[in-house]
């Protein structure tokens, strides 16, 4: 029987099969679905010809060229971690939304599927690493659209500055911020060339201060690709680097791969269709995805009164994903009003169904929508209109 503490540091075996009873338990906090369980151990970031692995390697080569031999690389850390590692050790406050089971997959009250690779910051510092890149699959209950998926991949980067780089805490923080931004702008240029449009946006993370997000202009919109900042002193002090300065970032690998390879929808990363997979080859950063099919989406609207017991969009999305799997492309709130007499609120959502691989029949879509409607009543206790 593995102890919880070992979870965070035990490496995944190749083609690991995570025992189901360790993930879907009867603990009252458990909210891991079959759908999510099925993704564990897929390790897309370790399949050499997969775009997620290709982008990982491209980022590695940027860091290797910049600082040869400096960054330790870890890509096989177990995705089941303690809530302590995922939240407490990176200073996530007790009442922060991300701790809510509406946002995070819990195995039991003390164990989660990591919701970010920042879960490995503290333990990796404790192992003595000063500069490292940690890549892995992360899990989140979230809304559904072309750039959000409940399982995705992140790469965490951390670098503790050399003490010679600064004279006091204030100058250390300035040097860290500058080196961080220079590094990530350099990375964007390495991946995308000089034509790419990027912008920095101020952000908040409990584990960095100041904090920033980088956005890239893609398909007519600003797409958020990473979060970063100057590491909170308390994390360094608690894990072997007292008084030292560091920066950290967390990259969304799907988002970067979408931009690099012109991949229009995040679901494509999960297809086993050779028409997708054969378009990518280890080391080839120049591939542009050629859609092999372009089927129109089919839209279905559903309206309902919200229950007094509470309702969340993440719950709705999990129901829809559980029924339609990767056939659902987006779930969007299109109308919302409150009836003052009834003191009730009604939401109308538009669900877009579209397969990446084939055309769907009306019958199939109607069947999915009917199941969604009954599950809304039975599981989410809404009153359909
Ligand atoms: C984090 O996860 C922070 N841990 C990042 C960080 C690390 C900040 C170290 C500071 C220091 P955020 O929740 O914004 O931040 O996610 C980081 C990136 O993951 C996003 O910019 C985005 O590219 C990607 N991402 C987030 N949610 C999803 C999703 N549902 N599907 C696909 N990619 C996502
Ligand atoms: Mg963010």
Automatic annotation (TrEMBL):
Residues covered by the Aminoacyl-transfer RNA synthetases class-II family profile domain? 55-291
Q: Which residues form the FDX-ACB domain?
A: 293-385
Top-rank taxon, per record: Eukaryota
Cell compartments where the protein resides: Mitochondrion matrix
Catalysed reaction, written as an equation:
tRNA(Phe) + L-phenylalanine + ATP = L-phenylalanyl-tRNA(Phe) + AMP + diphosphate + H(+)
The Swiss-Prot or TrEMBL record annotates one GO molecular function as: ATP binding
**Which GO biological process entries does UniProt record here?**
phenylalanyl-tRNA aminoacylation
Q: Which UniProt keywords apply?
A: Aminoacyl-tRNA synthetase, ATP-binding, Ligase, Mitochondrion, Nucleotide-binding, Protein biosynthesis, Transit peptide
User: Which Pfam family is one of those matched by this entry?
Assistant: tRNA-synt_2d
Which InterPro entries does the entry mention? aa-tRNA-synth_II, aa-tRNA-synth_II/BPL/LPL, Fdx_antiC-bd, Fdx_antiC-bd_sf, Phe-tRNA-synth_IIc_mito, Phenylalanyl-tRNA_Synthase
- Its chief place of residence is mitochondrion
Please give the GO cellular component terms listed in this UniProt entry: mitochondrial matrix
**Name of the top EC class for this enzyme:** ligase
Q: What is its EC number?
A: 6.1.1.20
PANTHER family listed in its UniProt record: PHENYLALANINE--TRNA LIGASE, MITOCHONDRIAL (PTHR11538:SF41), PHENYLALANYL-TRNA SYNTHETASE (PTHR11538)
Instruction: Please state which protein family the record places this protein in.
Output: Belongs to the class-II aminoacyl-tRNA synthetase family.
Name the job this protein performs.
Answer: Is responsible for the charging of tRNA(Phe) with phenylalanine in mitochondrial translation.
Name the record gives this protein: phenylalanine--tRNA ligase
Organism, by scientific name, is: Coccomyxa viridis
């Amino acid at each position: 029987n593995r102890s919880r503490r070992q979870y965070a540091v035990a490496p995944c075996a190749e083609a690991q099969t995570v025992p189901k009873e360790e993930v879907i338990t009867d603990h009252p906090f458990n909210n891991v679905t079959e759908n999510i369980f099925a993704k564990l151990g897929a390790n897309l970031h370790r399949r050499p010809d997969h775009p997620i692995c290709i982008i990982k390697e491209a980022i590695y080569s940027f860091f290797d060229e910049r600082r040869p031999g400096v960054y330790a690389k870890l890509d096989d850390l177990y995705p089941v971690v303690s809530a302590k590692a995922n939240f407490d050790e990176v200073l996530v406050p007790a009442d922060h939304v991300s701790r809510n089971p509406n946002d995070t997959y819990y195995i039991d009250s003390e164990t989660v599927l990591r919701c970010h690779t920042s879960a490995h910051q503290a333990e990796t510092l404790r192992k003595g690493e000063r500069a490292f890149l940690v890549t892995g699959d992360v899990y989140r209950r979230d809304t559904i659209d072309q750039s959000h998926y409940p399982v995705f991949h992140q790469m965490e980067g951390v670098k503790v500055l050399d003490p010679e780089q600064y004279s006091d805490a204030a100058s250390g923080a300035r040097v860290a911020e500058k080196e961080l931004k220079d590094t990530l702008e350099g990375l964007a240029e390495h991946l995308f060339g000089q034509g790419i449009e990027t912008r920095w946006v101020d952000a908040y993370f409990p584990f960095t201060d100041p904090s920033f997000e980088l956005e890239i202009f893609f398909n007519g919109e600003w797409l958020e690709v990473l979060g970063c900042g100057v590491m909170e002193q308390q994390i360094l002090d608690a894990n072997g680097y007292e008084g030292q300065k560091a920066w950290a970032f967390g990259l969304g690998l799907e988002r970067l791969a979408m931009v690099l390879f012109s991949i229009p929808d995040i679901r494509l990363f999960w297809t086993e269709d050779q028409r997708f997979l054969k378009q990518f080859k280890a080391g080839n950063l120049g591939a542009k995805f050629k859609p092999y099919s372009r089927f129109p989406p089919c839209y279905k609207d559903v309206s309902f009164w919200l229950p007094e017991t509470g309702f969340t969009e993440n719950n709705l999305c999990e129901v829809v994903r559980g029924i339609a799997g990767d056939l659902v492309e987006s779930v969007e709130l299109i109308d919302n009003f409150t009836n003052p007499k009834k003191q009730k609120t009604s939401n109308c959502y538009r669900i877009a169904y579209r397969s990446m691989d084939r055309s769907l029949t009306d019958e199939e879509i109607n069947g999915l929508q009917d199941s969604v409607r009954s599950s809304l009543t039975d599981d989410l206790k809404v009153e359909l209109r």
